[in-house]
Amino acid sequence: MTIGKTVDDTTAMQRAIEVAWTARLRSSPNPWVGCVIECSDGRIVEGATERPGGRHAEMVALDAAGTEGAKGSTLWVTLEPCSHVGRTGACARSIIDAGVARVVVALEDPDPKVSGKGIAMLVEAGIEVVVGEQQEAVRAQLAPYLKHRQTGLPWVVLKMASTLDGRSAAPDGSSQWITGGAARADAHQLRAESDAIVVGAGTIRADDPSLTVRHVDGPDPLRVVLGSIPANARVQPAIEHQGDLQELLEMLGERGVLQVLVEGGAAVAGGFHREGLVDHYVIYIAPALFGGDDARAMMTGHGASTMEDLWRGAITKVTQLGGDLRLDLSPIAPSQVTGPVPVVRLEDGGPATRGQGGI
Length: 359
What we know:
Elements: H1 9-21, E1 34-38, E2 44-48, H2 57-70, E3 74-79, H3 91-98, E4 102-107, H4 117-124, E5 128-131, H5 135-141, H6 143-151, E6 155-162, E7 167-169, H7 181-193, E8 196-200, H8 201-207, E9 222-226, E10 239-241, H9 245-254, E11 259-264, H10 266-274, E12 280-285, E13 296-297, E14 313-321, E15 324-331, E16 346-347
Parallel strand pairs: 3-4, 4-5, 6-11, 6-12, 8-9, 8-11, 9-10, 14-16
Antiparallel strand pairs: 1-2, 1-3, 7-13, 12-15, 14-15
């Protein structure tokens, strides 16, 4: 679109964040990045990271701007432009060569190959550089990528579904379906956003799930089963893991997995929780009651024995999905990746609302 005045940094970066969401399902193991450029002729163009081996967000936007439009322009990007040559060229060098006059970066890239080098290249070339605009929002958006680059480990999301009285399955083991269609579709969006999914062998034996992405468009995750996989299980092909959960995360991190979705069952959920391996909890709650103590709990194993040992988190978001609620829960201690725990808010839309809007 064409506008008659300069876009302010906050508005432009918010749009870049929205554009970045459009790359969420295709860019891994690269970060999902958004870029907006106000061209010298007043046009606003944008770009998002393509699939691995394709163009980075800055290059998509620069190509849209064209040679004349890029000269003297302002560029907003959610993550520091890369300074090294890999499967693609160095974005910082392309920005310099295009004649961009001003660059606004939300967040410095912790990847050792970049880590301030891209910003330094731009400054040395005489480009005005501003760093930090909307950095908290981008830090939350890129949490899986940032954790992986800082620790070598994937971001762990634990997904559970329960009734209002905290039960995840009937006494006979049946659990399909506790929640309604909207919540199940949202859970499949979580699968699509995750590079790997982890379940226990008991879940495979009880439900024979395929663990593929349905109800939404997106790639299937790498499937990991804790224990032995029964012959002819629908989850195949999958990885069997028999050892320590920390070792599993280290192995997945080495494979370039940025986000792991833990789907259960109750023993697996309890194990990840008690070992402090969960970065984010997603709990779907249905307006239903088993009405007794013989239905199965969300987690099994030894829990807190006293109130002093009770684990406490912070609800960061509440979303209504049809008749169900989705609670997003984070450890209460500030994360080195995402910073302070954000304030809870009620929304009537889920991941499908991402990427809407414009400037």
